[in-house]
Amino acid sequence: MTSQAWSNWAGQQQCTPAVVARPRHEAQLALDVAQAAAAGHTVRALGSGHSFTDACVTDGCHVDLSQMAELVDVDRASGLVRVQAGMPLHRLTAALQLHGLALENQGDIDRQTISGATATATHGTGTRFRNLSSGIVGARIVLADGSIRELSLPGDEELLRAVRVSVGALGVISELTLQTVPAFRLRKIEEPRPTDELLDGYLELAAVHDHFECYVFPYADTGLSIATERTDDPAAPPPRWRTWIVDDLLANHGLGAFSRAGRRWPHRAPEISRALVRLLSRDERIDHSHLVYASERRVRFTEMEYAIPRERISEAVRAVLAMIERERIGVTFPIEVRTTAPDDAYLSTAEGRDTAYVAVHQFVGMPYEPYFRQVEAIMDGFGGRPHWGKRHFQTAATLAPRYPGWTAFQAARAELDPTGVFTNDYVRRVLGPAPAETTA
Q1: pTM greater than 0.90
Q2: CA–CA separation, 1 vs 325, rounded Å?
Q3: Among 57, 102, 141, 157, which residue has the least CB neighbours within 10 Å?
Q4: Distance between CA atoms of residues 126 and 292, nearest Å
Q5: Can you tell me the distance from the alpha carbon of 24 to that of 68, in angstroms, rounded to the nearest whole number?
């Protein structure tokens, strides 16, 4: 084990842990965790660094799971697959496709590891589809003493409700068992539409499409509708030149250029945002699900996302847009609006309620905190729950009342990590001190 400086994808969280463990298999992982705990180190597992919070920051031990990244077992008949925790989503979905299987739903970024994405309740969109974590039906988790706890259904329902979304606070997951579905194709249509039309009709649009999301732009009256349906039609990806224009030139190079202009001249944000909207155009593609869900993101930003009751979504987005214009905030990134079905993980942002999400972004190098704090104040009024891997300013005291399963999660934490080996400053801030710290 060695020491090595670390930073997240956005480059805004850094640390230099005392040791970095890079296990190749579960037995080595168990030994590494036990040794780090015995040395008095906090232990935090590393994914791909796509979280914007300080969830992975520690001066103790980082566990780099990038060498534990294989598909262990596939049962095509049942759809159950076992996967090592460090496997990135883009590799997992490609491997599943070869077996005629797929994840039921995904988000629009697939660089995260499966364990990192599920630990933070990462999600896609669709009123009938739950987040990634809901597909977990089994797990192997390494505890502070190096012992391995295996959880499965039936029998371990309550602990699995905690482990599905754990923010890394219960141990280091070595392996997950996921429920997958037969592979399928998607037809995605992106097109500009009036902002009022998107917000006034959001609930209906979300209900009639398998997957629906939209982007609305500050200071502009046009947004982007993204409607996706499951289809039996053959794959028909756009020609390479069209993909380059839409996905590379506009979504990355173009957005980057407009964002740099906004950073240099923040007072020109209204003009920049309206100019960006004029470049929006219709695009359609049919392909295998994992190739449609995900898109490449090369423009660096930081992000906040809140989950609120679905029926309040249009009201909430309009409140954010009005605040931006009232305060003349220099922001050119659009606001992303999505939805998911309820689930039962104790710390899931969609636990127990039909949910919609409001995500706001700010380009790297631009001030984000005043903007995000005002957005958070609005979301507090809607009973908002923050994405565990994205910026927020909540504490355990403000979050506990928003989660019916909070006490049950804390009971699981007391059972699996009573001394707080997996509790860093972030976990302590958002989940409270470890049980041993409370009683000390």
Answers
A1: yes
A2: 51
A3: 157
A4: 14
A5: 6
